[in-house]
Amino acid sequence: MLIILQKQDYKKIVRQALEQLPVEACGLLGGTIDENGNSVVKGIYPLTNMDNSPEHFSMDPKEQFAAVKDMRKQGWSMLGNYHSHPVSPARPSAEDKRLAFDPKVSYFIISLLEREQPVLKSFRIQQGLVAEEEIKIIGEE
Fold first, then answer.
1. What's the pTM value of the predicted model, to 2 decimals?
2. 86 cis-preceded (ω within 30 degrees of 0)
3. With b meaning 16 or more CB within 10 Å and e meaning fewer, what string describes 30-42?
4. In whole angstroms, what is the distance from residue 48 CA to residue 20 CA?
5. CA torsion 117→90→26→42, rounded to 10°?
6. Is Aminoacyl-tRNA synthetase among this UniProt entry's keywords (predicted)?
């Protein structure tokens, strides 16, 4: 399965991750599934990391609810979530795997190890097993 992400939304995730350093940034991804079964991200919902930590995150429940409500209003589904790794690679940590409850959504991780070259990857996580997904970034800035 392919994930299609607009360049402007990619930049929005990177900007949020950089602005919230050294704390992990987090948010939700809304969109649709196209006729080929690909996830098409239509909206990025930056959320507050309630843990205010550089090593883990928990999303503000009120903000999550508002984001999902907006997705439904747009006719979108929640495709997944994202968070940053300020000083580690873009791969799920043991905690990320443990907390991945929904095997049907994508888990985006953006690594800021190289500040000038952020690395964004996406994963499906099911019962601790991790499968990387391909992200295709399209469109203009």
1. 0.94
2. no
3. bbeeeeeebbbbb
4. 10
5. 80
6. no
For the stretch 86-135, pLDDT in tens is: 999 999 999 999 889 899 999 999 999 988 899 999 999 998 899 999 99
Give the confidence band of 141 by pLDDT, cuts at 50, 70, 90: low
Burial of 128 by CB count in 10 Å (0-12 exposed, 13-18 middle, 19+ buried)? Answer: exposed
How far is the C-alpha of 83 from the C-alpha of 106, rounded, in Å?
11
What domains, with CATH codes, occur in the chain? Answer: 2-138 (3.40.140.10)
